[in-house]
Amino acid sequence: MQTRQLGKNGPVVSAIGIGLNRESGKSSSERESISNQTKETLDHAIESGLNYIDTGDFYGMGLQEMNIGQTIKGRRDKVFLSVKTGTLRAPNGHILGLDCRPQAIKNFCSHSLTRLGVDEIDLYQPARIDPNVPIEETVGAIKDLINEGKVKYLGLSEANAEQLRRAHAIHTVTALEIEYSLATRFIENEILPTARKLGVGIVPYSINYYGLLTGNVKPPFPQGDFKNMLPRFQGENFESNRKLVEWLELFAAQKGKSASQIALAWLLSKGNDIVPVVGMNRPERVSQNIEAMNIVFTSEELAELEAVFSHDAIKGTRYPEALLGWVAS
Question: What is the topology classification, in CATH, of domain 3-324?
Fold first, then answer.
């Protein structure tokens, strides 16, 4: 397994991470099926040497943390646990908002430790920056948890350059989890240079932008599907974006790979300080993503990829207007 150092002074982890963001299912049988599939996939990942596990205390309303805890029992030393927190959800799964007050952060952490069955979380981070709480207070709470031995490293998620600098002034930020892909390259303007100046590792998520770059996802989507809200999947935007993805599929075929493998390999080529988190819900997906780690591009191929998927090539904002305030820009 290829490894990378997470941040200038952080731990060495697998070059890619496994993202576990599955809903809990509505019935007990659905929950059991999802749990079994998660455990099987995670077990295969760990045995393959992939040790970076990314989750959130609100994923599956805590179910995913319980699944992880059961799967890593007896092999805690083989995994690196990254947990996001601060997102509030109703029993029906709807997002209620954020709560990153110090007392809330510490409360959420205690529950995560219990569900995971561990004494310490490796990387702990607010899932989003709470506009109602100064970032210094949120980071201060995690700093307390680090001093208490409940958390090892501080992370952030979807923070902009200014927020990253403010947080880093309170305590060393080891990693920034943020959307970054061939489809979404805005961080290259200011956030990525700032992170590198501070020695903060980058953990990209949504590397296929909700399936867009795989070539396997297209409208119409089922009622309730989150992609129905995303401008990039709508009308003329999607028709324009689909042509780019078709080009990517042809590019991938020429290398004997899939479009999603090329998208992952491109991210890995952007620097050794980048550790992408990939959503995986089947054991075969683990093997496919590990295989992508060995893809090598020529300088000409990289130039072609970046020209076709330039910063403004993908049409449509990454989220609707109502949600843009939740993410960095």
Answer: TIM Barrel (3.20.20)
